[in-house]
Automatic annotation (TrEMBL):
Protein name: BUB1 N-terminal domain-containing protein
Taxonomic lineage: Eukaryota, Viridiplantae, Streptophyta, Embryophyta, Tracheophyta
Domain of life: Eukaryota
Start and end residues of each stretch annotated as Disordered: 1-36
Ranges where the BUB1 N-terminal domain occurs: 14-104
């Protein structure tokens, strides 16, 4: 189980990937036959955080990018998930946030 420290965004230190243990996606109560599910849950939490707390946009966006990138790196080329619509949604998020990064 991965524990994530929740702190207010105001005055928060820059995001550091060294503060997290690997894997970054929460593995709580996920069946072993569905390894994408923890990433989907973590991505949903990050998106909800962006919507609920606009002042934390950059921190939550960095977390979202990490979850999406890690999932794509791990399962993007896997034939087993090539027809999984959930992975297609993650690919779309991946492209969307890469474009946002390029526009900044």
């Amino acid at each position: 189980m991965v524990l994530v420290e929740r702190t207010p965004c105001a005055g928060a230190a820059p995001f550091s990937p060294l503060q997290r243990s690997t894997p970054r996606a929460s593995r709580e109560a996920s069946p072993p036959s569905d390894p994408i599910l923890p990433y989907l849950r973590s991505i949903k939490k990050a998106i909800d955080e962006i919507r609920a707390h606009p002042e934390c946009y950059h921190t939550a966006l960095e977390q979202l990018k990490i979850y999406v990138t890690e999932c794509i790196d791990k399962y993007g080329d896997d034939y087993q998930y090539s027809t999984d619509p959930r992975l297609l949604k993650i690919w779309i998020l991946y492209v969307t946030y890469l474009l946002l990064k390029c526009q900044c």
